Amino acid sequence: MPLEEYLHAVVPSEMPSSFSPEALKTQAVCARSYAYMQLMRADLAAYGAHINDSTSYQVYNKVEKTKESVAAVDATCGQVLTWNGKVVEAYYFSTSMGYTDTAEIWNVDDPSSYGYLKKACLNQADADIDLSDETAFSKYIKSSADGYDSDIRYYRWFATADLSDKTETVNEILMARHSISPKNVLYYESDGTTEMDVAAAGKKMGAITGMSVEARSSSGSILTLDLTYECGIVKIKTEYNIRKILGCMVKKIVYADATESENITMLPSAFSTVEKQEDGTYLLSGGGYGHGLGMSQNGANGMAKAGMGYQDILNYFYQDITVETIGEMEGKETL
């Protein structure tokens, strides 16, 4: 299948065709850049494929192509994002909480290789606030803001996390995540510095007794979440792991428009407070939906409505990037 034809169905599956034409063009360029990277990487070559059709790569054909998606793809034919002369993985997500973040939230080995991902402020006031401090973050996330995607229900939300009877569930998630990436789930004795034998941790540590934020990024995302046990501490890193753990403790989440979701499996984002209440539960006041890296899709639509062109929007979200046309990609690469 030609790449451009593939994108005709990816764009409406990832972004509503009702969005502004300039926003759809940003999605087309990001989706093409991401797909091109997968073509070059060939992770699924053993299966005779370059990508699959799930959110692990990009959603394909969940929504059939539309005239709007075709127009956006055709108008940007062959265009990709490059940084330092190389095509980048143009990460994107649903909705910001007023800021985007850097690859720091993924605890990557080489942050410099993700230098195109920057902290971007989507608030109309364009105030760059350091939200790494707990007090500053709590004040910000509990206040309203006039931003490019502040009209979206995910912009602000709150939930209550209850540790009661969650130890077994949490431990299962932690062990699964540790097996995938040990550096992002760290087990310690109660002193917080002496490493614990992971194999013995489940029986030795006992029940979870509390949790707290150890570190945040300057955009406010939790970098390290500490879980305190009767006999030990687990330090959890990366936004995905943190969202999984906090999500399993929540029964209901309430969004800015007063709508609710129950039985969630992940917190909408890692931009959240973790504040202990008198009854032993924890207040999670948060915002945004998704990992928070790269382009906010709803933010891009807000910018397009405000009159920004797609290249200006892309430069707003990604640092020192160039929109280039890869000649050999123009309908010739196949998936």
TrEMBL record:
Gene Ontology annotations of biological process type: sporulation resulting in formation of a cellular spore
Protein name per Swiss-Prot or TrEMBL: SpoIID/LytB domain-containing protein
Lineage: superkingdom: Bacteria
Chain ranges of the Sporulation stage II protein D amidase enhancer LytB N-terminal domain: 1-83
Database matches in Pfam families: SpoIID
Organism: Roseburia intestinalis
GO CC list: outer membrane-bounded periplasmic space
InterPro entries given in the database record: Bact_Sporulation_Assoc, SpoIID/LytB, SpoIID/LytB_N
Higher taxonomy: Bacteria, Bacillati, Bacillota, Clostridia, Lachnospirales
